[in-house]
Amino acid sequence: MARGRQEEIGIALLGLGNVGLGTFRILEAHAKDIERRLGARVRVLHALVKDAQKSRPKGLDVTTDPEVIFGDPAVQIVVELIGGTTVARELCLRAINTGRHVVTANKALLATHGEELFGRAQAAGVDLLFEGAVCGGIPIIRTLREALASDRIEAVIGIVNGTTNLILSAMAEEGSTYGAALARAQAAGFAEADPTLDVSGMDAAQKLCLLAQLAFTARLFPAQISVEGILGLEPADFSLAHEFGYVVKLLAIARRPPGGPLDARVHPAFVPRQSPLAEVRGGFNAVLLQSAALGPSLFYGQGAGAMPTGSAVVSDVIDACRDLLAGVAGRLPMLCAPNLADVALSPPGARQGRVYLRFTVSDAPGVLGRIAGVLGDKGVSIASVLQRQPKAGEPGATVVVFTHVAKETDVRAAVAEVDAFASTRAPTRFIRIEDEPPIGPAR
Ligand code: HSE
């Protein structure tokens, strides 16, 4: 394949859905700027689609046949925007094996087959770039790979899923129902084809694995981390969070204390209202980094949607073009051996932190005392407590406990004991409070 100085670089888009169209529009609308910055034109030569009869942007050559793309020697960069982990994997491998640079926004593919794909790309001497795979338009991959390559990252804490953030914001701020808020996220093009990936926390876990691999050079797969989605949250949790000065967010967290195990998890959390993460609303995402030299830094922007994600994809296309023009590849670390190593992970339940507990109980003498007794027996200290009479239609009175810092296994053991009491009317809601710096104010 031609490398070195050239006037035009040919690319092919695999997939022309939401992000594919955004990518094409940006390449068209910013063509002159891109050419000025690059010193060469970028031309979309083909787009692989499922249905060639659908109406497409003018001037775009669409095909349903991958052979058209792989048979064209002018295609130097393949942009995979199909999604999924089967056809996308095959086509990425084919692009790599035929010496093409690859750009993808497919976090599921990289979280599952990343090591294989990066390894093959490294061996073939081509780039595999993936800025669009995490947090849409926020340049967080570049930040970790390049800007902070100098630093030692201690924590990555993110709101990395636009769909769930939109749902949580709409439920908390507008009293929207879960279903109406999800429909909005789908209409905005944020949600995955199967939104279960979003609401179960799995999409966030896939992104967290990529971030943690870059931040800690740790080999990490979603199946290794504890993942909780947003489905168990109820309106009472949002109103109680508000009353006590918190906002409910789905957080993706990876922390590694010097010499300690990596603590990686995804779950809803109470975040103090003063935290910069509390301000992240709707489809926006943010990643808060804590690093040894820089200290805390925050990266914020639109985390999903055609144009923000398209912008990240095009930035990768430009990077791959720069490498083609310079006749180099693999300037950036690949997420495979020897750059990644197995690391010790914190076992589930090892977290020490504050917790919000919402008990639903019968309004009878001694119930509150028994709850306090069980928590005390397990060494869990109560910071504040509130009891509310049942409203019409509610199964019982509400007892809310905010704990002091406690070991998660101790709190879980206490909750299991309380949930077994005859006086307990519904499973107790357990939500972690994340208020340590850098999420909360410096202490
Ligand atoms: N479904 C994802 C989200 C799309 O809602 O954030 C962006 O990765």
What is the CATH domain class of the largest domain? Answer: Alpha Beta
Termini distance? 57 Å
> Could you list the spans in which at least 5 consecutive residues all have pLDDT below 50?
none
Mean pLDDT: 95
Assembly classification? single chain
Query: Based on DSSP secondary structure assignment, what is the total number of beta strands?
Result: 17
Which structural class best describes the helix and strand composition? alpha/beta
CATH superfamily caption of the largest domain: Dihydrodipicolinate Reductase, domain 2
The rough form would be described as elongated
Structural domain tally: 3
User: Which small-molecule ligands are present, each listed once?
Assistant: L-homoserine
* Count of DSSP H/I helices: 14
CATH topology of the largest domain: Dihydrodipicolinate Reductase, domain 2
**Rg on CA atoms, Å:** 24 Å
CATH architecture term of the largest domain: 2-Layer Sandwich
Could you explain how this protein is built, in words?
By secondary structure, the chain is of the alpha/beta class. The chain has 3 domains: 149 residues, Rossmann fold (3-Layer(aba) Sandwich); 162 residues, Dihydrodipicolinate Reductase, domain 2 (2-Layer Sandwich), CATH 3.30.360; 82 residues, ACT domain (Alpha-Beta Plaits). It is built from 14 helices and 17 strands. The strands form 2 sheets. Strands 7, 8, 9, 10, 11, 12, 13, 14, 15, 16 and 17 form an 11-stranded mixed beta sheet that branches. It has a 6-stranded parallel beta sheet with strand order 3-2-1-4-5-6, with helices on both faces. The longest helix is centred in the last third of the chain and has 21 residues. 46% of the residues are buried. The model has no long low-confidence stretch (mean pLDDT 95). The site of L-homoserine has 11 residues, from α7. L-homoserine binds next to α7.
